[in-house]
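Me: I keep going back and forth on a fold encoding question. No explanation is needed for now; the record alone will do.

Assistant:
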Amino acid sequence: MTRILSIDPGYDRCGAALITVEHGKPQLETSTCITTKKTDTHSFRLAFVFKAIQALIEEWQPTHIAVETLFFSVNKTTALKVAEARGIVVTLAGLHNIPLIELSPQEVKQSMTGSGNANKAQVQKMVALTLVLDTSKLLDDEIDAIAVGFAAAGALKVSTWQ
């Protein structure tokens, strides 16, 4: 069975989801959102994210880790801080010798909605419809991690299951 730990990286909020794939069918097992304290220093927040993802790896025992490539926004300071959080995911994949699946935001959007130009609301709506899931109780970052996981499952199917 394939077990994908998918991450929507962030230093403020970091979404995480476990997607399992059995007989070619992806399924959401669980999801969470790692939230740091705004009053903590940036280095402490990154350390908190590192420890939380490390704990998820130990608990969930993924066979793969999925993460989006960076999307550079207008706010370069925020983009750099998110890049540091993304670096944590990449580092942990390497430390645990877990294959890393990197997808662009357009690939995730294409996988979930059929359009690489879909907006955030459209992706979130398709996550809710695909999983018959009430997303009103989930944070955006958690929903994004679920979308990354399903897109990664699709990418794995294309590359290894055919």
Observations:
- The helical segments are 42-60, 76-95, 105-113, 120-131, 140-161.
- The longest helix spans residues 140-161.
- The longest strand covers residues 25-35.
- DSSP finds five helices and five strands in the chain.
